[in-house]
Amino acid sequence: MFKEYATLVPYLRKYRWNYVLGLVCLVTVDGAQLLIPQLVKRAIDTVSAGAFELSSIAGIGLSMVGIAAVISAGRFLWRYFIHGASRRIETEMRDRLFGHLLELSGGFYQENKTGDLMARATNDMGAIRQATGMGFVTFVDGAFMSLAILAIMLAQNPRTALLTIIPLPAITLLIVFFGGLVGKGFKRVQEIYSRLSDIAQETMAGIRVVKAFVKEERFAGDFSAANDEYRDASMGLVKIFGFFFPLISFLSGLTTLILLAVGGGAVIENRMSAGDIVAMLAYLEMLVWPMIGAGFTVNTLQRGAASLKRVNEIMDQKPSIVSLPGASPDTPRGELELRSLTFVHAGADKPALADVSARLPRGATLGILGRVGSGKSTLLKLLPRLVDPPPGAIFLDGRDIRDYELPALRRAFGFVPQDSFLFSDSIAANVRYGAPELSPERFARVTEISTIARDVEGFPDGWNTVVGEKGLTLSGGQKQRVAISRALAVDPEILVFDDALSAVDAETEDRILAALIEERRGRTNIIVSHRVSTLRHADLILVLEGGRVLQRGAHEELLAEETGFYAEIARLQELERVAGKGE
Fold first, then answer.
1. Does 284 have pLDDT greater than 70?
2. CA–CA separation, 268 vs 261, rounded Å?
3. Most buried by CB count within 10 Å: which residue of 272, 403, 431, 453?
4. DSSP readout, 92-125?
5. Do the Cβ atoms of 233 and 196 come closer than 8 Å?
6. 147-202: per-residue pLDDT in tens?
7. Contact 343, 353 (CB under 8 A)
8. For the chain, give me the number of helices (H) and strands (E)?
9. Which domains does the chain have, with CATH numbers?
10. Sheet of 353-360: strands edge to edge?
11. Over 80: is that where the pLDDT of 356 sits?
């Protein structure tokens, strides 16, 4: 269990003075509490003696009031120092986890579900905070109080104390046994909670599909089943504690029974005073908390260890794509060359791209056409190393893209994907996402090019209109045009359109392309599309089939190859256009 806590050493070292000061305050509180039974003993013995001055009792009372004030102040201070440190550790660990998640490559997110990652960043972090806060307190408090109380009892009445603490070894064994059960149970609870989060996240993210296929009942059933499993696992822990704590209380009560039997006889035989037995009874009652607290400590530390293990599993993951040693920090300018590019996905039987070669000067436009599965998306992912290409296959400005630092390489690209992702923010904020300092003039220009400006004018809140998660409140064409504006706002060296005009009508497409070609003059563009009309402005068009280049050339050259795939697609799309007008 404790090996997982090794990862907390840097944080504990950073906040060591918080823990030291909190520990001093905690021990001061414990020491003050240990004085109270002695004062009670003095008061009872004084009263039972018969002749006493009221001032002597008053003095004891005032001493107890002063001790109570020290206890109150000490409790506030140890909470401030220790809980404050645990909250800061939680915050820093969550920041570090989130930052690490941002560094991990795309393949990691194909293997791990969003709901599980969210559970580790929230629920597990809370368990770690409890372990570094209250877990630390109960451990120190329990150990100090147990040893101090036992030392006082043995020093004052050794025979009675030894007989009274006979049940304590059984309590220790129970704590060890139940601690293992708690650790396994809590790990299972956390895993089920992650699955529950997965179902909720996927359902909410795909709510349109769920409703379109009338699958609300199915998803509600999946969530209910996982929720029931989470309840059952949690109730398993409740049953453990429901049995554990009463048993501890029962064994602790036996110590009181033994004290009354043994101590009562000692009082009758004048071997103990009435004050002695009352003080020892008070110490036994104080000893119950460390015994029960030991169970709480084991529970908290086991939970913290289980959560730390889950968090460490993520932190131990390394990005599969990183900047290589000696990589250039310069941003590429846009001269692209593919040299016999062949790429095979992990676990695939055949290459997604095979022997693809092409050269595109800076300022030119490359068009890519191909059926589904022809390798278009793979090629686009390879360019900014979202998927790592083989060495010596892709070059920018004459340099292998693997020889650029990742941030520098990726800054050169502006992507407009077919399925445009928008953040749940205003339209203006989504446009400015990559360029927060975008001037009003440039903002107006990029939104005019994408033609989204004319749509926004009709929205009640204009540019301040907040779109739903993933742009849920906008149409497909509106989302694509906001994404086009966002990509243009960063003014990238290489603009990539991945079928980014598929959801707009032909007239709007023509307007966008005409403005785009004018705006991007002198900059490199890559346009992937299923529409021949979209590719007609390209300087070079690659037709992909099965990962290979089937045809290459300019629009007119490919149309001239009447038996070629490009010309065939052009004729079919022209027939569809004419038929559409006829209707």
1. yes
2. 11
3. 431
4. HHHHHHHHHHHHS-HHHHHHS-HHHHHHHHHHHH
5. no
6. 888 888 888 888 887 887 777 777 767 776 776 677 677 778 878 887 888 888 77
7. yes
8. 22, 10
9. 2-315 (1.20.1560.10), 336-582 (3.40.50.300)
10. 353-360, 336-343, 394-396, 399-400
11. yes
Q: What is the rounded CA–CA span in Å between residue 334 and residue 503? A: 28
Q: How far apart are CA 308 and CA 154, in angstroms?
A: 40
**How do residues 376-389 score in pLDDT, each as one tens digit?**
989 999 999 989 99
CA dist 304 and 133 (Å) reads 11
**What span, in angstroms and rounded, lies between the C-alpha atoms of 524 and 362?**
5
Contact (CB, 8 A) for 317 and 117: no
pLDDT one-digit tens code per residue, 35-53: 888 888 888 877 776 666 6
Edge-first strand listing for the sheet containing 494-498 = 413-416, 494-498, 524-528, 365-370, 540-545, 548-553
Go through the chain and tell me how many residues it has. Answer: 583
Spatial separation of the C-alpha atoms in residues 476 and 322, rounded to whole Å: 34
Q: Which residues of 400-423 are buried (b: 16+ CB within 10 A; e: fewer)?
A: bbbebbbeebbbbbbbbbbebebe
Rounded CA gap, 496 and 527, in Å? 6
DSSP 3-state of 457: coil
First vs last Cα of the chain: how many Å apart?
73
What is the 3-state secondary structure of 291-340?
HHHHHHHHHHHHHHHHHHHHHHHHHCCCCCCCCCCCCECCCCCCCEEEEE
The model's pLDDT over 321-339, given as tens digits with 9 standing for 90+, comes to 899 999 999 999 889 999 9
- Tell me the two tokens of residue 173: 């064994």
Cα torsion angle, 354, 357, 363, 367, sign: negative
Of the ranges 74-78, 287-291, 416-420, 454-458, which one carries the lowest mean pLDDT score? 287-291
pTM, to two decimals: 0.74
Instruction: Provide CB contacts within 8 A for 455, sequence distance 6+.
Output: 478, 481
The residues, any chain, with a CB within 8 Å of residue 189's CB and separated by 6 or more, are: 230, 233, 234, 237
- Where do we find the tokens 């250039």? 328
